[in-house]
Design goal:
The complex is a heterodimer. By secondary structure, chain A is mainly beta. In chain A, the strands form 2 sheets. In chain A, strands 2, 4, 5, 9, 10 and 11 form a 6-stranded mixed sheet that branches. In chain A, a hairpin with a 2-residue loop joins strand 6 and strand 7. By secondary structure, chain B is mainly β. Chain B starts with a strand and ends with a strand. The chains are: A mainly beta, B mainly beta. At the A-B interface, strand 4, strand 5, strand 9 and strand 10 of A face strand 4 and strand 5 of B.
């Protein structure tokens, strides 16, 4: 079964607020990624992390690869309405295996 | 620049019918994937093809078959559809299995009645 536990399942926030979500696993992952899915579309890659402890930003988004290699988090600062969607964490345990995805965090932004 | 194209976008099947979901990519990627997305379950890997001529099972392969027709095309076949296969199906591709910048298609929404 799926090996990534993503939380929270859903969030309702006010426009302008910061958002934090995370992903944990009982197993070590060598790569962590965060994808966003807009309604009616396929997921799109936001940030990729390849080293334990790595902190990477992409505009208002910041993600970190946990030092234990068993977790990752994604922060969104100053949320805007277009941030609405489902955010998926994904990981790979080895270099030759496809990504495993979390169950997603559904984000709603109230203007 | 089409990226990954999936057809059809919507389909309704009766239990027991068969159908093939088509996927094509124009990025010269070596690896292709089929995922299904169900409410509250995220994306689960059905099958993947690391390179032309190879296919491997993912997490939920039962009830499905795949064909890597050539480097561009990777099809998913349901031989005898069941209501449990009602889902949104996504095809994705990447340069290699080690390259995680997957490009996803926009999905096929399948309903089995």
């Amino acid at each position: 079964g799926q090996q990534l536990n993503q939380s929270p399942q859903s969030m309702f926030i006010q426009e302008g607020e910061d958002v934090s979500m995370n992903c944990t696993s009982s197993s070590i992952f060598n790569t962590w990624l965060w994808y966003k899915q807009d309604p009616g579309e396929g997921p799109v890659l936001l940030i990729a992390l390849y080293k334990a402890g790595e902190l990477t930003s992409n505009g208002r988004l910041t993600a970190q690869f946990g030092i234990t290699r068993k977790d990752s988090f994604l922060n969104i600062s100053a949320s805007i309405p277009s941030d609405v969607g489902i955010y998926f964490c994904a990981g790979s345990r080895s270099g030759n295996t496809p990504l495993v995805f979390g169950k997603g965090t559904r984000l709603s932004v109230i203007a | 620049n089409a990226g990954v194209t999936q057809t059809p976008k919507f389909q309704v099947l009766k239990t027991g019918q068969s159908m093939t979901l088509q996927c094509a990519q124009d990025m010269n990627h070596n690896s292709m994937y089929w995922y299904r997305q169900d409410p509250g379950m995220g994306l689960r890997l059905i099958y993947y093809s690391a390179s032309e001529g190879t296919t491997d099972k993912g997490e939920v392969p039962n009830g499905y078959n795949v064909s890597r027709l050539n480097k561009r095309e990777f099809s998913l076949r349901l031989e005898s559809a069941a209501p449990s296969q009602t889902s949104v199906y996504f095809c994705a591709s990447s340069e290699t299995v080690k390259n995680y910048g997957y490009t996803f298609g926009s999905g096929t929404r399948l309903t089995v009645v």
